[in-house]
Write a structure and sequence with these properties.
single chain; about 210 residues; five-stranded mixed β-sheet; 14 strands
């Protein structure tokens, strides 16, 4: 596991913040291959070697690390990832259960639920499609666990990964998209937003006003 040492005097600026920038880091210790792997789990410590947090490290990103937990006794594992997803989805269950066939819901905005870089939308309710963006190394590394938890928590069997080129390039991640589970979404769907009908490409996120 990597160890990130924060510069003296920078510790307080991290409290409660999900991101760590390169300017706050004194050094990173660990195996070279782990340093180069986006999303590697790291212990974050202060200059006196006292625990601060666990984080996902990415040497290729302007955001060098994204916090998983400030709790020393909370490991980063499948259980944590699935617990975070389940908790986030439970808060949205009333909206999910009421969702219509042409409704688009935002289920997860990563930094709000301890899954920095993850964006999840649901189109068409539980019989529709989960559209996911993995825009940071940490959540990309835990993609399988996240998808499993999403399917279990929502009951939706169709999961598609959308590629945000700009975000993934900035994280040094490959530009990939495609079906992760179930069926591929159609090329175009119709939805209504504030009384206005739109045509939406679920695969790209492109939306155009319907005439």
């Amino acid at each position: 596991m990597l160890i990130i040492t924060i510069k003296q005097g920078k510790e307080k600026s991290l409290l409660g913040q999900p991101w760590i920038y390169a300017s706050a880091i004194e050094k990173v210790d660990g195996k070279p291959q782990e340093k180069m792997k986006p999303g590697s789990t790291a212990i974050v410590q202060n200059s006196a070697r006292q625990f601060i947090a666990r984080a996902a490290y990415n040497s290729k990103s302007q955001i060098r690390a994204r916090i998983w937990s400030f709790k020393e006794d909370e490991p980063v594992d499948h259980a944590l990832i699935k617990r975070r997803v389940k908790t986030a989805i439970e808060k949205r269950l009333p909206a999910i259960n009421k969702a219509g066939a042409n409704q688009l819901l935002t289920l997860i905005k990563g930094d709000d639920v301890g899954l920095s870089g993850l964006e999840v939308q649901l189109f068409g309710g539980v019989d529709g499609y989960l559209i996911c963006e993995f825009n940071a190394g940490g959540v990309d590394a835990w993609k399988v666990a996240i998808v499993q938890a999403l399917m279990a928590s929502t009951g939706c069997a169709n999961v598609y990964e959308r590629c945000n080129d700009l975000m993934r390039k900035g994280e040094g991640l490959p530009l990939i998209d495609g079906t992760l589970a179930g069926e591929e979404p159609p090329d175009e769907v119709m939805l209504t937003d504030n009384g206005v009908r739109f045509a939406l490409d679920l695969k790209t996120g492109h939306k155009s006003k319907f005439r």
